[in-house]
Amino acid sequence: MDFLITIAEGFIGMFEEGGETFTGLVTGIIPMLVVLITAVNAVIKFIGEEKVNRFAQKCTKYFILRYTVFPFIAVFFLTNPMCYTFGRFLPEKQKPAFYDSAVSFVHPVTGLFPHANPAELFVYMGVATGIKNLGLSLGPLALRFLLVGVVVMLIRGIVTEMITARMLKNKENSVA
C-alpha cells in the first residue's frame, strides 16, 4: 500500500514541479523578454530602422563578419535569449546559420562578460574553481573561452549556411 502512495505522490509531485517551473517563467523571464523586446524595438525606431538595417548589412556582408562580429554584438548587447532577434536583419537563407553561431557563443562569452548569459555562469565557475584550485589565473581561461567561442561560432555559421543552401537547393529541385 505504501508503494502505491509513494507512486501517487511522485506522480503529483512531478506536476507540482512543472507548475512551479511554469510560474517561475511567467513571473521571471517572460516579462523580462517582453520588456527587452519592447525596449529594443523602441531603440530601433528611435535610431531609425533604415540606419539599423544599413549597419546590419555592413556587419553581415561578408561571412566572416556575419558569423563573428554580428553574433558577438547581438550576444553582448541583447544577451541570451534576446540576441537571436538580430536574425531579423538577415535574409531568410542566413537566419539558421546566424542562430547556430549565436547559440554556440552564449557560453564562451560568459568568462569575460557574465551579463551576456548569467544562466551559464555556473558552468564557467565550475571550471574556474578548478583553475583557481591549481593556483592559476582566470584571465587566460576567460580569454581562451572567448577566442575559441569566436572560432566555433564562425565554423558553425559557415557550415550551417552551407547546409541550409544545399537544403534550399534540394527543395527547389524537388518542386521543379
Automatic annotation (TrEMBL):
InterPro entries hit by this protein: PTS_IID_sorb
| Family annotation (Pfam families) | EII-GUT (PF03608)
Alphabetically list the UniProt keywords.
Membrane, Transmembrane, Transmembrane helix
This protein's source sits in the domain of life called: Bacteria
State which residue ranges cross the membrane. Answer: 22-44, 64-87, 141-159
The protein's matches in NCBIfam families, at most eight in alphabetical order, are given as: EII-GUT
Q: What is this protein called?
A: PTS glucitol/sorbitol transporter subunit IIC
